[in-house]
Write a structure and sequence with these properties.
Distance between the termini: 30 Å
Mean pLDDT: 87
Structural class: mainly alpha
Low-confidence stretches: 1-8, 150-156
Radius of gyration: 18 Å
Number of domains: 1
Length: 156
């Protein structure tokens, strides 16, 4: 949401890029803990998902000028993608730490968490799915909309 005042156009969103790099940092640090988790495979999965989620956030921040969205839609896109990326990482870390594997039977490698942990992990994965779909839908909408006047003239 940072603007380039000299050009009068929307520029790269440095806060989103920074949020992406922060998630990558958390994922790298969490990767160190993976061997010590009840389920190390989910620990490595959390590490990978954190790096991937961070890269998605970085891409969104760098691609900000390409989105044609009103301010409230841009904010919604960010809320959904930050929620999806950070929750996916944190929830997979929780699953690795507790051994929860109801929704991840292959990565779960036969571990079973406490019923409360399984329920929490389940509902947070549902949240990740919903926020990812909503964030992607807004992104697609913002990229398919006609851009400024110059974009419309190029189509002619």
């Amino acid at each position: 949401m940072s603007a380039n005042p000299s050009a009068g156009q929307i520029g790269i969103d440095r806060r989103v890029v920074g949020g992406g790099f922060f998630l990558i940092l958390l994922a790298l640090l969490g990767g160190v803990a993976a061997p010590f988790m009840i389920n190390p495979r989910l620990g490595v999965g959390a590490h990978t998902l954190g790096v991937l989620g961070g890269l998605v956030l970085i891409a969104i921040g760098l691609a900000r000028p390409a989105f044609v969205l009103e301010r409230h839609l841009w904010r919604a896109l960010l809320v959904f993608w930050f929620a999806a990326a950070y929750t996916n990482w944190a929830n997979t870390m929780l699953a690795g730490l507790t051994g929860s594997s109801r929704l991840t039977p292959i990565a779960g490698a036969g571990t079973v968490g406490a019923p409360a942990a399984e329920t929490i992990v389940f509902w947070f994965y549902v949240l990740v799915g919903v926020t990812s779909v909503l964030g992607t839908a807004i992104a697609v909408y913002g990229l398919w909309r006609p851009g400024p006047r110059q974009d419309r003239e190029e189509v002619r």
